[in-house]
Design a protein that fits this description.
Length: about 250
């Protein structure tokens, strides 16, 4: 990237536990956040089995519990056999514009049922509920397509935006890859291993108010998930446990 940049966030995961001054584990009990569907719904918990740091890596894991259990959320509860791990910088670090990178290795799965996402989400829903306030999935993966990074930009478009996603970003699924985003007032550029994957110039539904919703602070989120729809988790077929290894997360302004 050209120009002068200042590092604003860096975690190399060199410790022996999650740095809670930088990261918040996602927990279904207080957020209602889940992935998967039906009897294969993953409950997000703050457990070392699902979120841990060791050997220079952050480990985010989805796994099957020994027995069914009740997962509580703010709206009730449900019974499941599955837990998963996710962390974010919500309330600790957010930024408007700049550059972001995640270096990670995905679970070694070639059957459908797993999903991983490295993404940005608004600190405040300034323009309304999703997708009005935006979401930037600068790296997203589906185990039914193990060789692809499929980024996606969510927002209310004024007209059909043909550049909100890409299906031709080929990665090496058997090793670590670096996924990046360069975010400016008028464009979003996604990278994989230094190669441009996607360039979008958002066309907001309310252009008179500027480049909303991508003109406000977003935080970083890293998610290991169970899949849905055509990539739906299949008990007994989808490989578990499934762990995403994250080597570093960095941001610049």
């Amino acid at each position: 990237m050209s120009g002068s940049w200042k590092c604003t966030f860096d975690d190399e995961f060199t410790g022996t536990s999650l740095n809670t001054s930088k990261w918040v584990p996602q927990v279904t009990a207080n957020s209602g956040y889940v992935t998967g569907a039906g009897s294969a719904t993953a409950c997000y918990v703050n457990s070392p089995n699902n979120v841990s740091v060791s050997g220079g890596y952050l480990r985010l894991t989805a796994l099957k519990a020994a027995a069914p259990f009740t997962c509580s959320d703010p709206y009730g509860s449900f019974t499941t056999r599955y837990t998963a791990g996710m962390v974010s910088t919500y309330g600790l670090f957010d930024q408007t514009y700049g550059a972001f990178e995640v270096n990670a290795e995905l679970p070694q799965s070639t059957v459908l049922g797993l999903q991983e996402t490295f993404w940005l989400y608004p600190q405040n829903l300034t323009y309304g509920a999703w997708p009005a306030s935006g979401e930037i999935d600068f790296a997203e993966f589906y185990s039914e397509y193990p060789e692809l990074d499929v980024p996606y930009i969510h927002y209310n478009e004024a007209t059909i935006d043909p550049d909100v996603t890409a299906y031709d970003c080929v990665i090496n699924a058997s090793t670590f890859n670096t996924y990046g985003l360069q975010w400016s007032p008028d464009s979003l550029t996604m990278y994989y291993n230094g190669n441009v994957c996607l360039v979008d110039h958002p066309t907001p539904a309310s252009p008179e108010s500027g480049n909303e919703p991508f003109n406000q602070p977003f935080f970083i989120a890293l998610t290991q998930a169970l899949g849905v729809n055509t990539n739906a988790f299949v008990p007994g077929v989808t490989q578990l446990p499934a762990t995403t290894l994250v080597k570093f997360v960095r941001a610049w302004s």
